[in-house]
Specification:
Elements: H1 6-26, H2 30-54, H3 59-89
């Protein structure tokens, strides 16, 4: 890959993870929080693939594919829950939703 080393990919992964973490901590919209969690999972995938590439192993790619499959299932369940809450409460703002506490 030319001049790109594993450190470049790990730096990019760290930046993506920090952006996702800041989105989870600062946003109040459930859909935005959900997308930020997915961004953090993809940052972890990038670091696993980078480590696998550095070590000449396919284990990182295998774990990444497993995480992608889990994220797909999580996305289906999470979006269904968000849709049910938004239909019941008419909002996706975290501060306004009290349905899970009742």
């Amino acid at each position: 890959m030319g001049d790109l080393g594993v450190n470049h990919f790990l730096f990019l992964s760290a930046i993506l993870f920090i952006i996702g973490m800041m989105g989870v901590l600062t946003r109040r919209n459930l859909l935005i929080i959900f997308m930020c969690v997915e961004l953090m999972a993809n940052a972890v995938n990038l670091s696993l693939v980078a480590f696998g590439w550095e070590l000449n192993s396919l284990n990182g790619q295998g774990f990444a594919i497993f995480i992608i499959a889990i994220a797909a299932a999580e996305a289906a369940v999470g979006l269904a829950i968000i849709m049910a809450l938004s239909r019941r409460q008419r909002t996706v703002d975290v501060d306004d939703i009290r349905a899970l506490r009742d």
